[in-house]
Amino acid sequence: MVNAAQLAYRPVGILTGIAAGAVAGAIFKQVWKRVARQDDAPDALQSEYTLARVIVAATIQGAIFAAVKATVDRLGAQGFQKLTGEWPGD
Question: For residues 79 and 85, is the Cβ–Cβ distance under 8 A?
C-alpha cells in the first residue's frame, strides 16, 4: 500500500532520477576519455570494436550509473525526511 510520504515523494524521485542520469552520463564520458583515451564509448552495434571493449565500456557505465543513482536517491530521501519528518521508502 502506498502511504502519503511515498506519494508525495514520487515527483521528487522522478526529477532526481533524471538529474542522476544526466550526471552519471557526464561522469562516464569523462572516465571513458581517461581510461580509453577516446572521446566516445563504443556502442554494441559498432563493428570496429571488439566484444570485450564493448562489455568493458558497458560495465563501467553501469557501475557509474548505479552508484550515482543510489547516491542521489539516498540524498533525496534524506532531504525529504528532513523537510517532512517521513521517510519516503517506508
Answer: no
